[in-house]
Task: inverse folding
């Protein structure tokens, strides 16, 4: 738990909100919505403080990292981002909470929209919906560019299994090896390790599923 002086804080500063609205040309897009401004110190877990299922959050200052929680409980960095990016879009469309950790790398400011009072309004707002689609596309591109930069074959296999397979199952060693740019021998060694650790189960030749 962080000390009070180092926790997220709501900032009641209309001029600062207007500054960010002007800087990112958001006035026309968000003029119909009540906006709050939050300040985060470095190394706070954003989605432990504000649930993206309940808010749309716009990063307007600072840098953040997005990490995924692996099946074994470890955390794997998948992307970093600077402004302008929006969080809560997937949660808004699917009405669920994704298992990601969003950490502030530097002090950050976020504009927020409370979805408890605006959800239906947003669903009828084509301009904001287009903006949210573009934000998802930006994050998807960040993740796609970053996900296989690691040379750790194990990390590649876990990411592939968790995010890019149907029902979290590997169906074909050769297909998986080609996808993660690994040799068949490297992949088979990692698959054996994961089976031995109880993370996955070998159903039959070439078929592995999450335990």
Result:
């Amino acid at each position: 738990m962080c000390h009070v002086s180092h926790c997220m804080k709501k900032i009641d500063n209309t001029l600062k909100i207007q500054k960010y609205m002007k800087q990112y040309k958001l006035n026309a897009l968000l003029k119909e919505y009540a906006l709050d401004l939050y300040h985060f110190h470095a190394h706070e877990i954003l989605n432990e403080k504000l649930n993206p299922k309940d808010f749309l959050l716009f990063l307007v200052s600072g840098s953040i990292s997005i990490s995924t929680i692996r099946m074994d409980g470890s955390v794997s960095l998948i992307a970093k981002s600077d402004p302008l990016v929006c969080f809560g879009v997937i949660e808004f469309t699917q009405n669920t909470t994704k298992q990601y950790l969003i950490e502030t790398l530097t002090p950050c400011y976020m504009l927020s929209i409370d979805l408890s009072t605006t959800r239906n309004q947003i669903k009828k707002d084509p301009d904001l919906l287009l903006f949210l689609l573009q934000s998802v596309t930006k994050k998807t591109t960040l993740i796609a560019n970053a996900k296989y930069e690691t040379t750790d074959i194990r990390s590649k296999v876990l990411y592939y299994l968790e995010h890019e397979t149907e029902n979290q199952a590997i169906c074909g060693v050769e297909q998986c090896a080609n996808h993660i740019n690994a040799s068949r021998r490297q992949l088979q060694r990692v698959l054996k390790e994961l089976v031995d650790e109880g993370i996955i189960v070998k159903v039959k030749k070439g078929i592995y599923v999450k335990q």
User: Anything to note?
Assistant: The chain has two domains: 4-146, 153-210.
